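Minimal example, chain plus acetamide.
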Amino acid sequence: MAQSLPLIPQPKVLQKQEGSFVLSAATAIRFDRQLSVETAILADKIERLTGEKTRSVAEELRIMLSSEIALDLDSSLALKPGGYEMTVAPRGVKITGKDVAGAFAGIQTLLQLLPAAAPMAEKSVSLPALKISDEPEYGWRGMHLDCGRHFYPIEELKKFIDQMAFHKLNVFHWHLTEDQGWRIEIKKYPKLTAVGAFRDSTPPYGNRNSDDGKRYGGFYTQEQIKQLVAYASARHITIVPEIELPGHAAAAIAAYPQFGNTDIPGYNPKVMTRWGVHPYVFAPKEETFRFLEDILTEVCDLFPSKFIHIGGDEAPKSQWNQSKFAKEVMQREGLKNADELQSYFIRRIEKFLASKNRSLVGWDEIQEGGLPKSATMMVWRDLKWAQHALDLGNNVVMAPNAYAYLDHYQRPVGEELSKGAEFEAIGGFLPVSKLYGYDPASVARNEKERKQILGVQGQLWTEYMKDWKKVEYMAFPRIAALAEIAWLPKDKKNYEDFRVRLDGVMKFYDALGINRAVPLDPPQKKTKDGSVIETSLNVHADHAIEFAYDGRANTFFWAGRELKKDDHITLRLKSPLTAVARVTVQTGGKASQNGDRLEKGELQYSVDGSTWIKVADFSEGKASGSIPAQSKALRVLVTAPQKFWLIVHEMTIE
Ligand code: ACM
């Protein structure tokens, strides 16, 4: 029963109780005065469901309410910050937050129990009685959005904030500057937007090395930004702005060329019209630092976030290596190379942010030339960078491209592109199940390191997301998997259960008109006909033993260790063969990797299930031969130890 409630993330502890609570237009909210903002948000949602005004009364008014939702606070609850307790009982719903954010999280749980479509068809809805005690595993539950490559209306961002809140995500990492566009109004430097917010062309879908020749651009005014920050704050979401430096800065340098490496041959900065990594980086001049500090001063005035993201990724060193001025700075500062100049650059910015009582976050390249002490590293490439930061005592946010880049395909590329060029993605493959399977704490070797992992974040890089519909397509439903791995400890995760709940949650997306994708379901771990297959080997990743006999050519079994003599794979057929048949077993992966094929082994059959008769030896990773009618079982027997692992493709019996 608990499994069927469409809650994502799943609460940490949920117990079903007897009975139910009936919510209707007569239900009123009784609230602690510190929760007036949260109460208004809940009341608004209930009004949309019932079509009638919801009554809210402050807690101290002892008015008798026949049907109530009570919102309360209790800092003594033995929960992490952001935790809450909730009961649904026939007399009412009670949500008690450890803090205000916790009460808000509890409200989201309640909203997920209500009907997806508004207004309700019936005048009331019955909620199952239950008790929940819930708290987040991670404090940083983030979603990133690149508004540099493409620009989206602020109204869409507000809706996105709502949807993040619905899933208890709490950090919106707003990527505001790029080679292809500067999107934040800076009063002191108006050309950043007058020039930097517009480009002359964009690659069309389907041809990334081409140009559409259309002028494109836009930016957010400071007034709009303040409104979004306040909107997010009311929903317990912190907006972490990102101002890219020293690289991904071509648009800013095009607007103010004096802050680039002006002394290099062919210097001619432009707002970029193609994707990829571009050479324009800021010059290490005192005027440039003043310029960046002025920008960051306005940024800090707009964004109350403790963390300010300064990019730091993909800053080519070619211009610094060409620039006489940059080389003089390296000499003056005793820097060995351009990597150390990058680190010098980052450290100066870190110091400036510290003077404003802010903390620097940067992509994992901020370790080039030495990681600044108090910096938080956002790990996007190899997990070894996380290890490196943890060793140095720095905090990390896990945002690895292999598991958390939502610009990757979520269904097979051929299938997507057959629907139209607008389904193009940058590349990669991240089905919802793969994201769900990611453990943000996988790099932690002990409890101390676990605590240095602040959380996990999904990335939406938008080269291939020209409009908001495409952003939705890439974000949903994968955002649900992200939310669950950010909220639930690893031992509480369960993909099959999540997948059932996701069907319920997708009804909310559909009711809101979100242009979601259809999740790609991983192949079921079942044999094709109910035959039983087992092995003495262990399974690597998701490559279940059943995949060796599931009727699908694109799945396979993969054993995740070296082989010992007498290791086996045994297939017991659902019913004995009625005629002579030919069996074939093909093992091995790509030849270039030497195989993972079976070097020494026998293919055997049995008619009584216990006496085994050899059909053939494996040769070049393959065995085949004829087996008699009445055969009940097949076995692959390893006859000598081997160093390589083992891949077994579909076993065929014809
Ligand atoms: C990145 O994807 N360049 C952080």
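The longest helix spans residues 338-355. The domain at 136-175+380-522 is CATH 3.20.20.80 (TIM Barrel).
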